[in-house]
Amino acid sequence: MSIRNTLLLAFCMTGTMLATTIAVANVQPPVTATNAVTEVKTVQAPTKISSATDSKQNKKSVSTADHSKFDELQKDFKSGPEVTTACLECHTEAAKQVHKTKHWTWEYINPATKQKLGKKNVINNFCTSVTSNQTFCSACHVGYGWADDNFDFTKEENVDCVVCHDTTGKYKKLPGLSGHPNYESMEWPPHSGKFREATDLTNIAQSVGKTSRKTCGSCHFYGGGGNAVKHGDLDSSLVNPKHYLDVHMETEGLDFSCAKCHLSDSHEVSGSRYAPTAVDTDGVLMRGKADGRNPTTCQACHGDTPHKAEHPKLNEHTDKIACQTCHIPEYARGPLATKMSWDWSTAGTLDENGHRKQVKGSDGRTLYDSKKGDFTYDRYVIPEYVWFNGDIKYTLFGDKVDGEDLVKINEFLGTPGAPDSRIWPVKTFRGKQPYDVGNQTLAIFHTAGKDDSAFWGNYDWDKAIKWGMEAAGADYSGEFKFVETEMSWPITHMVAPKEDALTCKQCHKKEGRLEGVEGVYIPGRDANPWIYKIGLLIALLTLIGVAIHGGIRVYMHKRGE
Amino acid sequence: MAKRIYIFKRFERFWHWSQALLIIFMMITGFEVHGLYTLFGFESAVGFHTTAAWALITLWIFAIFWHFTTGEWKQYIPTLNKVDAMMKYYLTGIFTHAEHPFRQSTLTKHNPLQRLAYLGVKLLINPLIWFTGFLYLFYSSWNAWGIGWLSLEWVATLHVIGAFMMLVFFIAHVYLATAGHTATSHIKAMITGWEEVD
After folding, report:
1. Interface test with B, best of A14, A16, A506, A525 (most B CBs within 10 A)
2. pTM of this prediction exceeds 0.90
């Protein structure tokens, strides 16, 4: 309600003040229909490309090119690089562009901290490290053939175009194949007795199109080694989400692709986990006014004061809290649980026959695996909340780890209450993993490979760490122990419908969501304990005083009668 | 037989009672916002409190206008004359039905203690609550007004101090309303305008 309206209203209220008060405060904003409903739908004849997509084809934009008609693609492709070579005949600059991106280099220098990050350099607390494990990890590399340090990052045909541009849903890079899909029929998952057909590269190449939730998700939903494992706000339930799960990506609603927010230019995809934009006060990002701003923020579309006038106080929160804090009240709100902890220290225990042990919960989730250790999972997880200014400091290989203190693999920096920081929801993943006692660093170890040192197969920590450390160019001291670690991710996907956003009371009370978050005065949570106690005491004494005074008056009066 | 005089005019009585209701309501909602209890729910309490605040401000604007146009503001000019007698009366005389040291009239309708107390409310408690409440309400404009350095915690704390002062005043005021010629004469006067005097 604007001040003018309120004043006007207040003037009218002098007569029936209280009654009106209650009535006005109960006025609810009208429910507005979603834009999607009124959107004009263009119907066109199904083409080969869109027939591969789901029933929403009448809403999808359609390419002006039908790749199935291209001469360059009328081939029996035998390998990924062959497909890429064909792509590059027309898209001459595409591979050069991809070569410059994090998707290709797996390297990122944080301009603020100068730390050398990227998947290639960071040690996490899931499978921990890419080094020495490339044949497996590179299943999510946008390239073919990264098996070891000899991989040629300059070869254009090594770029994997179709992993992002596939529309058939039948293209899959398998761990262990160094970024290749299976070109021949192959047992998958291993020892399952099931077989994956040879990848039909020709069909896939002739069906390429825009990226989709499915293609981006083929890696980003499976981070940490499985569906929903790592992020908690990204999993395969977002391929076809309902309204309650994600208001933007809802298939029957706005149906955003990832790229709708993560606008790309020259194959450089915007948005970053390494250098997120924590504060954005520049308002709506107009076309033509790029200014190098990050277009993925909520504010880039909604501005910094998006709440309607019926709720004037809500906009006053944006100077302290990120949009996500209220609008993503929980993460992992889909059918899938996200992994919450991973204890490597219990890995390697075999059954009585010396075989790998796997313990599964009633829901089928692995609770223990000899290869990996103990896991815990959770759904509808309440995030942790931190002050965040966009800078993240990592504990990298070589950074001192003494084993005494918990290691923050990454630390969200920010100053409580400062204008450059906001309160953000994060998923914090906790675990135990090996560190090299002599070198005082987090250990790099060799997990997967058909050799005598890979931990997944030999269950020998010393061998696995020795191999991994050597691959990283370091000498293993010969002694390792396990150290507790913590790693966090900002929660920013799975934006809930506004009806499901946090209510006032969830923070504006003692022991609410933001309990323990300093640097902000929250009415209802924060009360000066002295003022409160002294105030109530004086009020109480006054009450007692008048009670005694009144009592004496009554008594004297009665005696006088 | 007691004499009756017309003390409180119609607007004054309307002002008093609507202000009373608003202040009681604002104390109830305000202390809820402060986290002392849950009654309406935080969001509703904030909404009620804000709306009531605007209503009270409007009422005050009318009341201030009324005080100046009628000259009634002079009722609050402080005096120490007979303050000691009033204190003594409340401490002893009132119990023994001693004669009230103050005689009400239409020109001096408040006893010297009332004058001081009401002046305190008007010059200290109300401005404190009003000013801090106004800042509270316009929190998002602080930067634009060049007062971004202000701490919400301080503003809120001063607002709460004002609220507790109002609560104490309220308790004492309600009780002393029974300390007239008879236990109900002040209250009747505030309703009908007519006060019984000796």
Report:
1. A14
2. no
Q: Can you name the residues that pair with A339 across neighbouring β-strands?
A: A377
Task: Check CB contact under 8 Å for B140 and A17.
Answer: no
Chain B residue whose CA is closest to A555: B95
Cα gap A125→A445, rounded to integer Å? 12
**Tens-digit pLDDT string for chain A (561 aa):** 445 454 444 444 444 443 443 344 444 433 333 333 333 334 444 444 444 444 444 455 678 999 999 999 999 999 999 999 999 999 999 999 999 999 999 999 999 899 999 999 999 999 999 999 999 999 999 999 999 999 999 999 999 999 999 999 999 999 999 999 999 999 998 889 999 999 999 999 999 999 999 999 999 999 998 999 999 999 999 999 999 999 999 999 999 999 999 999 999 999 999 999 999 999 999 888 767 889 999 999 999 999 988 787 899 999 999 999 999 999 999 999 999 999 999 999 999 999 999 999 988 899 999 999 999 999 999 999 999 999 999 999 999 999 999 999 999 999 999 999 999 999 999 999 999 999 999 999 999 988 999 999 899 999 999 999 999 999 999 999 999 999 999 999 999 999 999 999 999 999 999 999 999 999 999 988 899 899 999 999 999 999 999 999 889 888 877
Measured in degrees and rounded to the nearest 5, phi and psi for residue A423 equal -80, 120
Q: Do A21 and B46 touch (CB under 8 A)?
A: no
B77 vs B63, B68, B114, B123, CA distance in Å?
17, 13, 11, 12
Enumerate the domain spans of chain A: 1-25, 40-271
DSSP, residue by residue, A42-95:
PP----HHHHTS-GGGGTS---S--GGG-GGG-S---SHHHHHHHHHHHSTTHH
Does the CB of A16 have a partner CB in chain B at under 8 Å?
Answer: no
Q: For residue B21, list chain A residues with Cβ-Cβ distance below 8 A.
A: 17-18
Q: From the centroid of its chain, how far is CA B179?
A: 17
Instruction: Tell me whether strands A195-196 and A186-187 are parallel, antiparallel or unpaired.
Output: antiparallel
Asked if the Cβ–Cβ distance from A521 to B22 is below 8 Å, we say: no
Which pairing describes strands A384-388 and A373-378: parallel, antiparallel, or unpaired? unpaired
Of B52, B57, B160, the CB nearest to A21: B52
Using an 8 Å Cβ cutoff, are A495 and A489 in contact? no
Q: How far is A326 from chain B (nearest CA, A)?
A: 14
Task: Please tell me what DSSP assigns to residue A363.
Answer: T
Cβ contacts of residue A231 below 8 Å, gap of 6+?
Answer: A220, A223, A224, A331, A338, A427, A489, A493
Q: Give the CA count within 13 Å in the CB-facing half-sphere of A187.
A: 4
Q: DSSP letter at A364?
A: S
Q: Do A521 and B35 touch (CB under 8 A)?
A: no
Q: Is CATH 1.10.3720.10 what the domain over B3-197 is classified as, yes or no?
A: no
Q: Nearest CB to A521: which of B54, B90, B152?
A: B152
Task: Collect all residues of chain A within an 8 Å Cβ-Cβ radius of residue B48.
Answer: 21-22, 25
The number of residues making up chain B comes to 198
Q: Do A18 and B25 touch (CB under 8 A)?
A: yes
* Nearest chain A residue to B47, by CA: A25
> Do residue A531 and residue B160 have CB atoms under 8 angstroms apart?
yes
Residue A110's H or E segment, with its range, is none
For chain B, report the end-to-end CA distance as a whole number of angstroms.
8
Instruction: For residue B167, give both structure tokens.
Output: 């609560």
- As a whole number of angstroms, the distance between CA A143 and CA A104 comes to 7
Q: Which residues of A touch B50 (CB under 8 A)?
A: 6
Contacts of B46 in chain A (CB under 8 A): 313, 504
Closest approach of chain A CAs to the CA of B149, in angstroms?
11
**Residue A268 φ/ψ, nearest 5 degrees:** -85, 115
* A313 contact residues in B (CB cutoff 8 A): 46
Closest CA of chain A from B130, distance in Å: 16
Q: How far is CA B121 from the centre of its chain?
A: 6
